[in-house]
Amino acid sequence: MRISEDNKLEKIIIVGDRVLIKPKTSRDQTKSGLYLPPGVQEKEKVQEGYIMRVGPGYPIPADFGYDEEAWGQEEEEVRYIPLQAKEGDLAIYLQRDAIEINYLGEKYFIVPQSAVLMLVREEDL
After folding, report:
1. Which of 29, 90, 101, 119 has the smallest C-beta neighbourhood within 10 Å, fewest atoms?
2. Family assignment (predicted)?
3. CA distance 110 to 120
4. Please, which residues have CB within 8 angstroms of residue 69's CB and are 6 or more apart in sequence?
């Protein structure tokens, strides 16, 4: 799943160590042929979906060593440890930690990276 430049998600900024996931379309029918009502798949503990946006990562404190010149300088920008997840990855994540949102009629989940169990990455994306 490739993210285009004119995508409607360009305006979304994900904060910290979270990722925005679009859930994979759930199958309405089980392998044995039973049809499931809406919401049954959503209540399972583990879900999968595609990562659409990624936050900057884990914030780390700035190095505030004693320096006479530091008194006149402005505050340093926040630095981050980047996340493993990248846009376009297929993520297997814990549903209990996900926050569901609806954006422009589409369903998404905001998930902390700690709730992501596994990533599947297509290197040619």
Report:
1. 29
2. Belongs to the GroES chaperonin family.
3. 18
4. none
Q: What is the pLDDT of residue 69?
A: 56
Which residue reads 């599947």 in tokens? 120
Asked whether residue 32 carries a pLDDT value surpassing 60, the answer given is yes
Q: Taking the domain 1-26+39-60+78-124, which CATH number applies? A: 2.30.33.40
Concatenated DSSP letters of 51-62 = EEEE---EEE--
**Angle, CA 31 vertex, CA 29 and CA 34 arms, to 5°:** 45
What contacts 101, CB < 8 A, 6 or more positions away? 107, 108, 109, 110
Collapsing DSSP states into helix, strand and coil, what is residue 90?
strand
